[in-house]
Amino acid sequence: MNYKIALIKGDGIGPEVVGEAVKVMDAIGVKFGHTFAYTDILMGGCAIDAVGKSYPDGTAEACKTCDAVLLGAVGGPKWGHSTNPDQRPETALLSIRKDLGLYANLRPAALRPALADACPLKKETADKGIDLMIVRELTGGVYFGKKDRYPTPDRGEEASDLMAYSEQEIERIGRRAFELARLRRKKLASVDKANVLETSRLWRQVIHRLAQEYPDVACEDVLVDNAAMQLVRDPGQFDVIVTENMFGDILSDEASMITGSIGLLPSASIGDRAPGLYEPIHGSAPDIAGQDKANPIATILSVAMMFRYSFHLSGEAQAIEDAVDAVLNAGWRTADIAKPGETAIGTLKMGELIRAQL
Ligand code: IPM
Ligand code: MG
């Protein structure tokens, strides 16, 4: 097959890690008989510098001509201060998710056996293993609700962000989560704040209705504050977690931390039609950009997710994941995951070792 891939290399370490991921994709192409054609798309801080806005006109249209999008990282302190939305890198991220209809964000957090001692939790907790998938609603809720700022007569300025969810939005993300749980350990935790929020009460109602269609999946409700606690107390209890946009944003950072290796974690953002968007969950790390220090594994594993979820090529996905595990099992480490005293290898060398396994 021939696939068209949009590359949004972005800022900071983005170009370096995408560079290695592309070489891995090409190696997979040779091994399995696929070809890939790449289109570079400018987005993020680099786009602000080049054309004055983080999300240049035509970005989504250009992505839509492709089968999938691979994104490195966007943003950095250089562009962090503008109040003009066009000049904020985050605007580009939120806009592309909305414009491509990417309502489901899959963020796996797994403790890889070779890195079990990087887990900051107690050894007896880590020994139980961590292998969970956060399914975050990505195009609704408070991040996309009406924003307002207005003066009050006696309390200074006031600001408000509206959080809204429709049954349709909840149902489509819920369905994704149940389907995924079916392919895994058949356990779903639906995280909400139904003791306080009306959106959460609707969320819970819809999830309970769906649960009847998936009797083979054990579904439980967990309040978000409790979920945050359970993630550090006993993360082994979770298989799939489904939750709304902001809760998922927060919990997925927490989940990545407990695996001890944020540089290893990929993500997929998908909707009902192509293209899906794949990106490492780490940021642009401007402090180490251009120094051959970044860990390319999260981006390489994002390519594995692309094969699995966009192209339905699980053999190719597995080959990449196995290659990464083989390199880690052999003891190779980039600086972010090296223990004191261990020698770290660079971005290019890590990419090369993974390709050699293929
Ligand atoms: C993420 C990020 C973004 C989000 C920001 C940068 C807009 O934190 O992908 O988790 O909140 O979705
Ligand atoms: Mg986040």
Question: How would you explain this protein's 3D organization?
Answer:
- With about 350 residues, the chain is an alpha/beta fold.
- It folds into 2 domains: about 1-110 and about 260-358, Isopropylmalate Dehydrogenase (3-Layer(aba) Sandwich); about 120-260, Isopropylmalate Dehydrogenase, CATH 3.40.718.10.
- The chain is built from 12 helices and 12 strands.
- The protein has helices at about 15-30, 45-50, 60-65, 90-100, 125, 165-185, 200-210, 225-235, 245-260, 295-310, 315-330, 345-355, and strands spanning about 1-10, 35-40, 70-75, 105-110, 130-135, 145-150, 155-160, 185-190, 220-225, 240-245, 265-270, 275-280.
- It has a 10-stranded mixed beta sheet, with helices on both faces.
- The model has no long low-confidence stretch (mean pLDDT about 95).
- 3-isopropylmalic acid binds near residues 90, 93, 94 and 249.
- The site of magnesium ion has 2 residues, from α9.
Under the CATH scheme, which class of the largest domain? Answer: Alpha Beta
If you consult CATH, what is the topology of the largest domain? Answer: Isopropylmalate Dehydrogenase
Rg, rounded, reads: 20 Å
Helix content: 25-40%
Helix and strand element order:
EHEHHEHEHEEEHEHEHEHEEHHH
Low-confidence stretches: none
Which hetero ligands occur in this complex?
3-isopropylmalic acid, magnesium ion
Distance between the termini: 19 Å
